[in-house]
Amino acid sequence: MIYPESFEEKLGFNQIRAKLKSYCHSPAGEEWVDRMRFSSEPEFIRVLLKQNLEFRQILEKAEAFPTQYFLDATEWIQKISVEGNWLDADEFLRMAYSLETIMACKNFLTKAAEIYPELFRMTEPVRVTGALVQSIFSTVDDKAQVRDSASAELGRIRKKLRDEQGRLRKLADQIFRTAVSENWVPEGALPTIRDGRVVIPIQAEHKRRMKGFILDESATGQTVFMEPAEMLDANNEIRDLEHAEKREVIRILKALTDDFREQLPVLKSAYRFLSQLDFIRAKARFSVEINADLPILETKPEMVWYVARHPLLYLSLKGKRDVVPLTIELNAQQRMLLVSGPNAGGKSVCLKTVGLLQYMLQCGMLIPVSDRSRAGIFQDIFLDIGDQQSIENDLSTYSSHLRNMNVFIQSAADKSLVLLDEMGSGTDPDFGGAIAQAILDALLQKRVWGVATTHYYNLKLFAGQQPGIRNAAMRFDDQHLEPLYILDIGKPGSSFALEIARKTGLPQQTLLEAEKLVGKDLAGFETMVRSLEKERHELSEKIKRMERQETELKQSLAKYQTLSTDLETRKKEIINRAKEDAAQLLKNTNREIEKTIRHIKENKAEKKETIKVRKNLETLTQQVGEAPKKEKKPEVELKEGDRVRITGQEGSGVILNIQGKNATVQFGLLKSITKLDKLEKITATVEKEIAAKLRSAGINVHEKRTQFNSTLDIRGKRVDEVIGILDQFMDTAILLAQGELRILHGKGEGVLRKVVRDHLKTYKQVASIKDEHIERGGDGITVVVLK
């Protein structure tokens, strides 16, 4: 049950119907939109949603699904159904084209049966064959004319007709030349046709000089159009042949129509399939436009929605600003939600979003929520929203609300969804609040599911104490007095009435008097609500800040561990190399000392030889002392904006600022404070060194540059494949410092183009994105210019 009758208009579903109709190719598809109804059958809904999802995937992949000749065959089938009626040649030709489309759709879905199983099941009743189409094309040509070969009699008649027309033209030319030679014909005039008969134009003063019949005259009366007596028989023969041709054509079309009358069941099922595809395609296009998806479908009532958006609001704000998504949860323990908050804070939008998305889902449409959301099936949806004052029924706004409440209490059950906007409003606040609380209690006793909005604090207290219902609030910036449109579940919201009144400029004395009239209890409750909201917000920000810090700490720890391991490895390598050098040096030294002693002994310690040997030892000593020393590199002054790296590493960054001996460096997404003496400026030599290391790691920049193609073709790819391919292509292009790139995605429905361009906007290195020149592909190719 859907209540009230104006349910669709109040939630805006009539606008969605209009949108779907604009996407249909045929009136038959539009009729499916009109017949779309709310269902509570889980399996039926599941099939509709799967069909919608599968066709959305076809559009997203930009597959070559047939889109032409989605024609409405209703009138044709009505004509064929009546004995003695026939379709004309043009109708048969258009039917042939649409039957070809039906067969092409069936072939496409048959080949992709494993990918699109629900759409494939729709093809099972379709029995159209190529023979049926061929029977049309063998009778009617592509100019919607019945072929000469359609029957032997028609071929004979048309041949004779052409012969007679040729003989008549020769006769007319002969008579016309005679009339011209006699100066009977107006200057520049030629033989023409009047009433289907060939005539000669003659000046009025010479009309009695030619034997024949006057069939017409010019507007001025100066020229008459005569059928010469010699041409009378030929014109009559042609007229008879034309009538015979027409009779034969009708006979042929009647016979063909009789053949199709025997195929009426086949035609009806085929065109039902085509119109249903048209309708599903329209739903899929709308799903793509609003970023709709298929949630996890439950057979029982449930509502756990993530990133839920109002589709009409999303479309109206598209390109202007983002719609703040809702996260909402109703379960068996907490079936109702009481939403409070300031005016214009988003309460009614929240309620309408719940009602519209649930209604769309149970009409078989995908909804704009995350695919990890869970959505249940309700038997009924009851709505009370807006001003329903009725002059005819003599009902006030509040009376109409109470009438609705009576219907809800009498009819709603444990599988009903009730949506109540501004409960208790429209009458005395004390009595209105009390009645609203009693109604909520009655609905809770019946285990009804629902969402209600209110300003009444007694209802907020009731929701905070009563099992089965929870408070929720639309978040509000109390400093700037602006709504944030974020739904917080678990706490009541403040109306911020006094603060908003203060912002509008009401006198301070008036506001103080209002605070006194409100009373300490209510003011204290509002203060407590705001205090809780502020504490919750601060706690939320603190948690986020701690999560960020924890993430940064983990990254720093991982980086430290990597550096520590690298340093330890290098330390061991240096020590081992130093030990080897020292051992070799010691060996050489011992060898020289032994050689020196032997030389002194052999030369019996002559003074000259001793001095010579001592010099050799001094030279060796200098070599030993200089061995550990390394060549000192010339110092390079670093400044802000320089591109640098940590000495010995390949990663590079940019110096943001310098303080004393430390520098803050941006390495990708991370900032790091590093000693200046550990940094090395990126120069041509350093770049060669990095390139050499990249080559040693298997990355050959020169080879990549020679093999790189600046044009990327992603036509036919799925959306989930495109992002990875595009990232790899962009990374290589940026590494190779390319200037201009081209991405071929095709035109289709524009899904791939949108995905590609939205993703390219996330690259800081992209300077511009535009269509290719219209002669070289237009909007089927995206041209990307890199900075």
From TrEMBL:
DNA-binding found in the keyword field: yes
Any one of the GO BP annotations: mismatch repair
Protein family (similarity comment): Belongs to the DNA mismatch repair MutS family. MutS2 subfamily.
EC number assigned by the record: 3.1.-.-, 3.6.4.-
Top-level taxon of the source organism: Bacteria
SMART domains per the UniProt record, alphabetical: MUTSac, MUTSd, SMR
Protein name: Endonuclease MutS2
Domain Smr: 712-787
InterPro entries (UniProt xref): DNA_mismatch_repair_MutS_C, DNA_mismatch_repair_MutS_core, DNA_mismatch_repair_MutS_sf, MSSS, MutS, MutS2, P-loop_NTPase, Smr_dom
Originating organism: Chryseolinea serpens
